[in-house]
Amino acid sequence: MDCVRRKVSSVADQRLTARAREIVTAARALVEEAGPEALTMRSLADRLGIKAPSLYKHFPDKAAVEVELIAQQLAGAAEACEAAEARAPGSLAALADAYRAHALAHPHLYRLGTERPLPRHALPPGLEERAAAPLLRACGGEVERARAVWAFAHGMVILEIHGRFPEGVGLGEAWKTGVAALEGSAGERP
Amino acid sequence: MDCVRRKVSSVADQRLTARAREIVTAARALVEEAGPEALTMRSLADRLGIKAPSLYKHFPDKAAVEVELIAQQLAGAAEACEAAEARAPGSLAALADAYRAHALAHPHLYRLGTERPLPRHALPPGLEERAAAPLLRACGGEVERARAVWAFAHGMVILEIHGRFPEGVGLGEAWKTGVAALEGSAGERP
DNA sequence: GTCTATACCCGGATAGAC
DNA sequence: GTCTATCCGGGTATAGAC
Q1: Is A178 on the interface with B (CB under 8 A)?
Q2: B34-53 pLDDT per residue, tens
Q3: What angle do CA B79, B85, B88 make, to 5 degrees?
Q4: How far is CA B75 from CA A17, A105, B28, B169, in A?
Q5: How far: B51 CA to C7 C1' (Å)?
Q6: Which residue is nearest to nucleotide C15 (CA to C1')?
Q7: Where are the domains positioned within chain A?
Q8: CATH code, residues A2-187
C-alpha cells in the first residue's frame, strides 16, 4: 500500500540525474508561465544560463523533456484527487472541486498533459491507473459513469481555459448541476 | 488590397470572393487531412498550385483563413444539431448523437474550432448563439444545465480524439450514462 | 493575380573542441 | 558538461516586376 501511495513523481525523478531534474524544473516553469508552445530547447537553455546543445547531454531530444512534464501533470492531478478523497471519501463533488482547482492552478501544464495522445510507453508504469483510481472508487467501480464524469470535468476545465464560455459567466452552478446529475444517477443503469 | 471582404450575409461563404472561397476549401481539406498544424501558407499554396505570397492578395494573413475554417466548423455543428432537433424535438440524446457524429467525422477541424479562444470579433454575428441554441432549447432554457451537457459532450469527443480513453474501449455506454444523468436531472435544481 | 526574390524570424539537432 | 559553429528545415510576410 505504501508502494501504491508513494509519489510517482519522485519515482519518475529517480530515473533522472540531479542536473536533468533541474532542467525539468526549468521546463515546467517555462510551460506554466508561457504555455507548451513556449517550450523550446533554446528558451529552456536560456533560462538555465546554458546553450541549447548542452541539453542534449541530458536528454536525447525534446520529447523526452516533455514526457517528464506530462508525468508531473498526471502525478499532480492524482495527488490532488487522492487528497480530496482522503478528506471526503466517496464524494464526487469534492473530487470534482479538487480536479478543477488543480487544473486551473496550472492551466498550461494541464493543456500539455491533456491535448495530445498520452506517451504511455514512456510514462512511469501504473501512473495513468493511479490518476484514475479515486474517481473510479467514487463511482463505486462503475467504469462507464467514471468516464462520463471525467469527460464532464475535463470539458468544463478545458472550455474554461480556452475562454469558450461567454465572458464573465460564473461556472460554479454548471459544475454543481453536472456533478449532481452524474452523482444522482448512481446505480440507475446497472 | 484585393482581399475584399464583402458585406456579411446569412451564408458565411458569401462574405468572400470566389477565389477566396477556393482557398478556404483547400485550407479545409488540408486541415481535415493532416490537422491544424499542417496548415501553413506554403502548404496551402502548394495545394492550389500557386506560390505562398499570392495568398496575401486574398487574405490579409493566415489568421483570416483560419477564422473562415472556424466559422465553418461552428456552422457545421450548428446545422447538425438543428437537423437532429428537427428529427427529434427536445431529445438530448439525439442532440448528443449528432454532436458526437459531426465532431468525429471532422476531428481535426473540430480541434481547430475548439482548442483555442474563439475569434468572436471576426465571426459572422449570431453564429455562436445559433450553435448553442438547439442545446439550450433541449434543456428547456436551463442555461447551467446546457453548459454542463456541452462540457460533457465536448469532453467525451475531445478525449476520444486525443486517444485518452483506454485503447479499444467502446464509449457508447459512457455517452448513454452521461446523457441519461444530465437529462434526468431536468428541473431538479430550480 | 500571379510570379520571383528576399527579409527575417524561429525551430531541432549534430560535430567536435575544451 | 559546456561551449562554438553549423546544418537544415520551416514559418509569416513584403516589395516590386509582369
Answers
A1: yes
A2: 999 999 999 999 999 999 99
A3: 145
A4: 51, 33, 14, 30
A5: 17
A6: A53
A7: 2-187
A8: 1.10.357.10
